[in-house]
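question for whoever is on the cluster today: can someone run the full assembly for these? two chains, 491 residues total. i dont have access anymore since they changed the login thing
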Amino acid sequence: MNLLEVESLEKTFTLHLRGGQRLPTLRAPDFQLQAGECVALRGPSGAGKSTLLRCVFGSYRVDSGSIYLHHQQQCLELSRADSRSILDARRWSMAYASQFLRVIPRVSTLAIVAEPALLQGKSDTEAAARARELLLRLNIPLALHHLPPASFSGGEQQRVNVARTLIGTHPLLLLDEPTASLDPANAALILAEIRRAKENGRSILLILHDPQQIRKLADRELILAAGDACS
Amino acid sequence: MTPQIEPSLRAQDLDFAFGQRKVLHDVHLELYPGEVLAIVGESGSGKSTLLRLLHGDLRPSRGVVEADDGHGRRCDLAELRQQELRQLQRSRWALMTQNSRDSLRMQHSAGANIIERRLAQGERSYARLRAEAKDWLARVEIDPDRIDDTPQQFSGGMLQRLQLARVLISRPSILLLDEPTSGLDLSVQAAVLDLIRKLVQSSAMAVALVTHDLGVARLLAQRLIILQGGRVVEAGLVDQVLEDPQHPYSQLLVASVLTL
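^ ran it for u. tokens below:
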């Protein structure tokens, strides 16, 4: 049984402030993702890699095609699901890390990372313990945990963002360039966490640019061609 | 497929007019426990009027507002007796208005303002009420030593936070907020947002939040509706509407946001 199935997916933006100009952004090849599988999205800038992740997560509305997600023992068609079904899928079945951390200022890093676990019904203590452990594994020292991430470096914020995405039990992880602004040592820590998630049977759809990282981590690649999207 | 949870509040087919001037057309919305719905739109688009309809202060000219009465029963606001409505407004539901001076008792102490709803809920111990009031002042970042001062000595931002403490203390199941952070400096705004977020999570409040600030909506709400000229022109998940707005007016709003 596939965790995720994407069929004939297309996304075009209509810019009403530009006289209704239409901007075709994505025409994705059909693909499936099974439990424990890691697929890397590749393609030149503008091919629609981030757009594809956002369509799956429900942030973008798709024009045509289908996105089937295995959610709570059923098949949820995300492109036609109502808001509350998508929220429920985000709570239990899929987590997404964008390239930027967006959080309420002044909230501690520990609370930010623990939140998805709390939403899945974990106790305060359990969620905090898990958050602490994950942050330490990602090289965010204990002394920083009670501080809000606003003052952190870009690389630290990115690791906080990834920790927040990994802390729950979501079977599907969508990661937009999780290693983009990291030095090799910290990138290796992130890749190790992603591999650990994969070994635990979670499925990962991610954007990576480094061919070496892809070779080490991904089971296969999905190529998005700029020509496809713009033709 | 949708999780089988009943909304705490549901408004259907709402029309409202002040005399000849139609303010709201055909508005539909639902509030769910543990969720924040942001309501955004231009000045005069009917946002505050909509909140007053949801609170039962105004009657729609067409349509129905149904809300949870705190005992798991749903009631049609138009069918409640005035006394029942007042009782629910004092205990289970709460409206924080834009103009704090209209909602607060300016001659009474800050403490007396805060505990009013706890008195209505039957709490009588002076020591407990005073301790609760001090606790809530601290939570909204007002020095608890100001408990005996009257709100007349408070700044606009403090009045707003006092109003928030006054409604939150009763742990309402439905909370309606009209620009709750508009007059606050940014550090206090962040504290207030975090306070609301925690309460929504821990007590399963259902919140409607009217705001001009799309950043505030983004951080606090799960769903969002955009009003223009009294009509809902777009509704959806907050990230959906802000990242992929469909309606021309929504696109204009999102394109007009200042970023640092």
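summary bc i know u wont read the tokens: The interface with chain B takes residues 13-17, 54, 58-61, 74, 76, 81-88, 102-107, 118-119 of chain A (CB under 8 Å). The helical segments of chain A are 49-57, 83-92, 109-119, 124-137, 154-166, 184-199, 211-217, 226-230.
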